[in-house]
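hey so u asked for the seq, here:
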Amino acid sequence: MTRERADAAKNRAKILAAAAEIVAERGIEGLAMAEVAAASGVGVGTLYRRFGDRAGLAHALIDASEREFQAAFLSGPPPVGPGAPPADRVRAFLHALVDRTTAQLDLLLMAETAGPFARFGGAYDAHHRHLTLLIAQARPDVDAAFAADALLSPLAANLVSHRGLDPAAIKAGLDALLAGLLPA
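ran it, structure tokens below
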């Protein structure tokens, strides 16, 4: 893994701070590459080379909370982290993912709909592997990979946005699915 140059790291931090401020003030609709470049003091070309487009910038803004989330389910305290029974961990993981998804819905909507497979890879793969492992431990008789996809599907940003459900309703729906899948 190559280390980021100090000046590049500083520029990245300035860019992400400026982008986060713009999103906080004006929403995702206000996120324009030229404005982010001007606010962060870098050239527009630098911004496009670094992030590709608005969706790439949205992914970068999402990255910090995703890193925290992954640390929580990989090594944090139970029930999201290790130490709780697999079924409890699945439920806690999904509830935490609902909170994370609804908190960053506009950014996720942009990032996940940038192309036909934009939702998949990276974070989705990590979430899927984690759920597959836990489901396989709790229910070795089911297709754990399929079950993981089924449980992650309701958390697609475009579906959450389309349905307009609040986090409590999404969690209740997932709990109902889990009641039929995992032992109590």
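The chain has a mean pLDDT of 90. The chain has two domains: 1-52, 54-181.
lmk if thats what u needed
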